[in-house]
Amino acid sequence: MIELNDISQAVIEGNAKKAKELTLIAIEKNVPPETILHKGLVPGMDVVGQKFKNNEYYVPEVLIAARAMNAALDILRPKLATDAANYKATVVICTVKGDLHDIGKNIAAMMLEGAGFRVIDLGIAVPTEKVVEAVKLNKPAILGLSALLTTTMTNMKDIIEALEKEGLKDSLKVIVGGAPITEEFAKSIGADGYAPDATIGVQIANALIQGIS
Amino acid sequence: MKDSDCVKVTLRPSGATIAATRGKSLLEILTGKGIGIPAICGGKGKCGKCKVRISEAQASVMPTFLECSLLSDREIGLGYRLACQFIVNEDVEVQVSSDNKAESSQSSRLSLELGPSILPAVRKESLSVPKPSVEDQRSDLRRLTDGITVENGRIRRLELLKRLPSFLRENDFTGTVTLYENEIIDLRSKTDNSHILGVAIDIGTTTIAMYLLDLENAIVLDSRSIPNPQSVYGQDVISRIDYAASPNGLTNLKNAIVEGLAKLSRDIISDANVSSEQVYDVSVVGNTTMIHLLLGISPQGIALSPFIPVTAEEMIFEPFEVHLQESFPNAKIYIMQGISAYVGSDLVAGIIRINLENEKGNALLVDLGTNGEIILKSDSGMLAASTAAGPAFEGGHISNGMIAKRGAIDHVWIDGKGKISFSTILNSVTTGICGSGLLDTVAVLLEKGILASSGKLSEDPFVLHNELGAVTITQKDIREVQLAKSAIRAGIEVLLSEAGITYEELDRIFLAGAFGSFVNVSSAVRIGLLPDISTDRILSAGNAAGEGACICLLDRKARDLARALSNKISYVELSGCKRFSEYFINFMTFPKEANS
Ligand code: B12
Ligand code: FES
Could you tell me the sign of the dihedral formed by the alpha carbons of B260, B266, B269, B274, in that order? Predict the structure, then answer.
């Protein structure tokens, strides 16, 4: 089990090289990829999330840690069965139409991935129709939306309305985030959760999927 | 105020006067009128920066002990005093030269040499034309245009044409013609010797500045600024664009700015004892959104990708078209050419002001506002970028943040005993902290090891306190500084790499904007906001935008230059730029050690 702890540690330190090497060793020793993910990477990202929360880590450290996690994940992905059993749930995430800010969204996506979700990132300035399409295709349990401009946050409302029109809204939960968003705004547009930061995003996602299942 | 409590302060060279309460310090009186006097130590008589020259008659007032220690005997003999120590008990005349305007602690200020009037767009010409006769049946207008030296002279103002026949006959076919390029814009009798005046305006998102110039003597008579009255509708450009889309939003924003300008012009014109009718030329610069709002044009295209303004072109209007007829009934309203949605004519004016084009080697012009604008001049041409830093440097989103006004902590340093000390503006009880104080605090906390290079604050909140009061700085405040400074720095780095040079190759950095002239350059370098080049290569450009607008009043060639510049400068869009994101993340941490 020692390797798994070390893998967590490598993620926390943001040491991509070490995370990769240790993952390879673990695979060689026949540790199941699922175990490496859930007992190595996820606990590591969990600590990263806590450090972010209590201000020990900030954006750069989180992204470096996420890079280490991704280095290991790149090796694991082909070996992990893509079936739902390996993931808590699927999250589709994007920055809304007209908005090109993605750093906060990327952090939220990585944290969710690090918490054991399958994350499908649609990228930036995603038109409402594209979001609806992606929901139809991937049937996520959670849709994460990000907006950093007061002029684009209303596009979140458009997305929720479009989902309602297509009868898709009841099949998923919507979490919104981004600096100008408030709890009130989230409620007013019918979102299920508001994440002031990425770790709260993970907490809400965990709580919401428990509600679903 | 009783007359006996009232003293008069006369400003030289303008001759403008200020009525003030007896017994106040000169610093208080001048800064109260918006006249920027550098008071780095906050009026404690420690920095010596608030030096002013008093007319001889009052210079006999004994200098204080502090003045004697900071000024040389020669200076005292010449009438130099410290404004913060000089108590005004009698009428006084004071020399407020351009090098007396806001100056920063470490950066040397450029002095504005508004040389002899070079070639203003507006000028006057004396007129004397033959009286009509049966042999000479030219129309009045023809007679007039034939009688001036300009080719293709014309009148466009119908009201002026209506006045023409009586004017010519009452004045015996002589008079003074006021020309704007080749257009006759006013006729005055020969005996009217009042000077042609110009007004330069810099409309910033936060502050509007106005300058009154005598275009015949090429001098600035006075300058004033007020907070932009649109602020009640939103702090930043995007919030205002948002508000402009609401019912009546655009009209309210336009009216707010027009009223703000009316107030400023009323004050500046009456204090200078001149008439608004003397103002024939108004030169306006501002960020592209502010220009849209002044003109009442919808700015919606600016907010969203692909960021398309309705116009960034040079435009000239009649005062009534832009609702400025009450402030400037006779003037032409010139709007300077800008570059793009996020690099406006204020930046172009700044480039003109510091003569960036002719700067040797590689030079950067950085405006440290909410929308940090950056221009890089290198051998390969000029590049521009705009990087949305946010309002942290103006005190926005900071728990105890405020703009640089009375009571704001403006400078923080480690004193000889290793204690953290600070000063406040006007030496008042602390009410908060402004951008320059915040940057100093971050630098000092890094130095003291209370703040790690990662941005982790070990004492959260950190309390700055002395006899003037206490202000707390939180971890979240530090995070805001990290975002803002990194956004600026990343923008700089993108332009440097685009031009293929490194920061060591920078010969000069000019800091524009109010914050830019206030900030302690070594702190800016210490926290990594600016590249680590020697601080004597970093200059404050003062209110470069407003002064650039002044230059356009005095020299119409500057207007040609503004148009040419906007074609020469390539705009680098940072949205969607991968390299920007990488730099932005990397520069979020603070440099480990102070290098220089
Ligand atoms: C970096 C930046 C940029 C970069 C973006 C680079 C990139 N790849 O993202 C560039 C330079 C390209 C840019 C461009 C613009 N920007 Co900008 N930008 C910023 C800046 C400095 C930081 C934003 C940031 O990355 N923060 C760090 C991240 C980590 O925080 P975050 O996004 O809030 O995310 C956290 C939480 O909110 C949450 N979260 C966010 N989304 C989600 C989603 C989910 C599902 C969950 C669970 C959680 C979550 O988790 C994150 C981590 O905890 C801010 C100012 C500031 N000081 O904040 C302005 C700012 C957002 N920008 C602004 C503006 C105006 C613009 C421009 C219009 C102007 C310009 N000059 O070009 C353009 C618009 C481009 C567009 N159409 O989108 C304004 C917005 C003002 C307003 N009223 O809306 C700001 C506030 C600055 C300002 N006051 O002027 N910008
Ligand atoms: S000496 Fe007067 S303000 Fe510093």
Answer: positive
